[in-house]
Structure formats: C-alpha cells, structure tokens
Amino acid sequence: MNMISTCDDYSESTEALDLNQLCIQHPTATYFVRASGDSMLDAGIHCDDILVVDRSLSARDGDIVVASLDHSFTVKKLELGQQTRLVPMNNCDQDYQATIIHDSSIFDVFGVVTYVVHAIR
Amino acid sequence: MFSLVHCPDFFVQCERIFRPELKDKILVISSNQSSEDSRVIACSPQARALGFMPGDRCCDLAELIRHHSVILSEPNYELYADLSARFIRSLTLLNPTTSAYAYDCCFVKLNRIEADSLVKTLKQWLGLSFVVALAPNQTLTGLACHAAQQFDEYQSVVDLCHHQERKALLSRISITDIHGINKITAAQLNKINIGTALELSETSKARIRRYTSPMVEQIAIELAGLRDSELEIGVGISEPVSTIVNTVDGCSLADLKIALKTMLNDAVGRLQTAQAACKSITVCAHISPLNACAPSYQHTLSTSLSKPNSSSNAIQTLAFGLLERLWNESYHYVALQLKLEGLPVAETKQLGLFAEQPRPYKNLGSAIPVVLETRFRSQACDTQRIRRPSSSLAPTTRWSDVLRVS
Predict the structure, then answer these.
(1) Residue B199 CB contacts under 8 Å (≥ 6 apart), including other chains
(2) How would you classify the pairing of strands B40-43 and B27-30?
(3) How much is the pTM?
(4) Residue B405: which of A26, A52, A66 has the nearest Cβ?
(5) Tens digits of per-residue pLDDT, B238-262?
(6) Dihedrals phi, psi of B130, to nearest 5 degrees
(7) Handedness of CA B38, B40, B44, B47 (dihedral sign)
(8) Would an 8 Å CB–CB cutoff place A24 in contact with chain B?
(9) Which pLDDT tens digit goes with each residue over A8-41?
(10) What is the pLDDT of residue B274?
(11) Across the interface, do A26 and B405 touch by the CB < 8 Å criterion?
C-alpha cells in the first residue's frame, strides 16, 4: 500500500489549526491591548499580557472589560447591580479598591476581554 | 433609492477612539508640525466653527490656537487606514450590497428601519459615529450628509425620500454647498436670482441650461427628486459593476458627450475605489417613446477590452466611440445608460494575532498624503511634500503601539 497517496486524499481538505479562528470571533470589531500592573492577577492577567478585546459583545455583569473612565483606559471586572462598579481582582493587594461609576463619571466600555495571551518563556 | 453611509470627521473620530482625553477638546490634525509649512489636514466641528479649514497654514492661525487651547495632533495614517478597512468590512458583513465609494463612505441598499439598526451596530463595533443618508439620487444623499453635520435637528439617519422633507431641507441649503457647483457657477446662478438649492430645483431646465451647463441642469433635476435610479451597486467590493442612467434632453452629439463624460467620471471612480480594471463598456441611448418620427427602441452598443484597463482616458475614448456610432441627428434622446464591468478584486485579510498576514489596504496610508497634497496644490499653496510623520502611533497595526491598560 502506498502511504503517501492515502494521505494525499486529505491534504487539500485539511487546514492547520489557526489561533486567530479560536481567539477572534469578530475580526473587524476586535482589538488588542497590553496589560500593565497587577490589579487583575486573580483573573490570570499579568503585566505585559496581550488582551483580546471584542467590541461587538454587549458587556454583562461579571465580564472583564476594558473601559474608559474619566479619559483614561482601565481593565477591570464589571459589576452591574444597584450600582455599576469596576472591580480589581487582586486579593493580595488591599490597595486596589473597587470604583463606583456615578452618573457624573465620564465612563464608556471599550470592549469585553475574551482571551488573554500570556508568554511564559 | 440611494443609501450612503458616511463617517463625518473621520480622522478626528479615529484619534478620539484611542485617546479619550481628546473627546471634548478642540482638535486639529496637522501635517509637518516641526516646520513652518504645517497645514491643517482635518479638524473637529468645534475647530471648524472657529474658522479652521483643511489646507490652512497653522502658523497663520497661531493666535487662534493659543487663545482657544486648540490641540494639534500629527496624523496617524496607519490607524486611519486600518479603521477604514474595518468599517468597509463590517458594513459588507452586515449588508452584502455594500459598495465602497471612499475611505469614509459606502453606498448600500437598505431602508429606514435597517439604517437605524446599522448605525447603532457600527458605533458599537468600531466606536465611530456614522450618518446614513437615504435619497432618490446621489446629489440628495450628499446634501443629506451635509445636513446631518450642519443642522442639529438632523440625527444620524436623514431620509430625503419624501417631497416635504426634501423641500424643507433644500430651502436651507445654499447653492455653494452643493457638490458640483463652484464659485463661478454659483455667481452665474445668483445673477438669475437662484441662491438656494430649492430655488435651483424649481427653476426651469431651459433657463438653467441657458445660463450654466448641462451638468448644473442635471443637478437641478436631481434636487427635484428625480431618480438617478439605475445606478446599480456592485455586490460587495469583489464584483464591481457600475451602471449609471442619466436623463438627457437633446439631439446634439456634443451635449450627449458632456453628459456621458460626467457619468464616466462617476463610474470609473467607483471601479478605481474597488481597485478594479474595466473589462467591458456598454453605452445605451434611449429615444423618447413619444417620438412619432422614430420607432421607440433602446439602442445599445458594447465593447470588451482586450486587456482590462483602469485608465479613465482610455475608457472615455472607447465610450465616446460607442456613442458616436449610436448617435443619429434625427433622433431626440431622453436618457443615456452607461455600464462598466470590472474585474473582481483580490480577497483581503484582517491582521491576525498569531500570523503574519498581508495588510488589506496597505496602500491607503501612502495614498492619503498624496490626495491631500493634490488639494493643497489646487489652492495655490506651497508645493512642499507632506512627510509621513515619524511620531505617529498605530495602536491597531503595530505591537509596539498597542494601548496599555492598567
């Protein structure tokens, strides 16, 4: 039996696994940002990690979002309850406190974080 | 019906997406900031209200800049090119009838209800605000976009398909705001007491033609709401077909050529925007069905190009040749139809996270400075070339420039 000709039957129909297909559902609405600091360590976000941010998703309670608050960007967990809050996720550092979004705040959700790319080497 | 989706103040909006601190500031995007020949490329509505115009020299406006704390920013062509590509792809995904007209506007086929939903979706996906103009022809869609920017009561969807809304708007628009009417033509029209778009639309064609040109007459016909209606939008941006029908009124070959030339400019422009070359030309001259002296028929001639060509001169020569063969001095023509078929464009790919992929509009960044430079030359300004700024940021296309968030 000729093994090469058996594989040839599949060579044109198979594609290599593509991480873009896995991580980017809406290419035209997806942006990448780089994390700094350690306010979101408990969410698995380390300093210099790349975050995949999807603008097409509507942010829900509990989502990790990139938002603009008073003209600067931040990445935090969004809580939507009686109050809207941006909550850090680092229990080891008590300096990080949740921020309550008031009506007077200049607040806008840039997008929802869907994947984190963390380099370990 | 025409529907135009347009992003007003595109460059300014792009800057504000990644720099939210600029949101409420008076922003001017200017070239060559380190030199004395720094020019305004784009400005926010607040800056326009202060008198800034594209092409102005910044050194002449130094006092205004200081007094109003105007923010000057270098242009980020890579960012603009990427966001333009995202806009066109998003719109094509949402509506396959999209036909890109320019980097900041596209024609689509949609109705009023779809327009509202489209504006909201594009705002969410891209962070850019859009205006959708719905009108029976191109001239009115252009005016609808202008109205959305100039008058506060017009929201993001401007519908001029109904006579009353059209009339109300046209009475407020000066003829100098109409695309295709320059200062000389405006002066000619002023002499016959035409100052607003409404007055132009209500003046007789013969009178307009006597004092101006067939092109202005065509504009007046369109302002009255007559359909330029057979402009077919190519399906997506991969199958460019441009068909235009214009009403004409005459027998002279010279007049028909003038009308055809205007149509050619539009049709060739659309193919060029879709990065397609013309492969065949069809010209059809419609005779009045009421003409008792001639049979009622549509006379059509086509030619295929042995080698696809995007040169407007070559296409014009061929189209004129077809018209000359069709034309007969005995007939009274009422409409001309022009159809250009182009070659499909190649697929473009979004930048990926993990693979090196070709940039979709890689030439747009280099094209934008050339377009602006041409405009500056026509204003008899210095011909110093606009240099691509070395300090521009590209947060969507360069890893070194991606936004940092804490």
Answers:
(1) B175, B193
(2) antiparallel
(3) 0.67
(4) A66
(5) 334 555 555 555 567 888 888 888 7
(6) -120, 160
(7) positive
(8) yes
(9) 666 655 678 888 888 999 999 999 999 999 999 9
(10) 64
(11) no
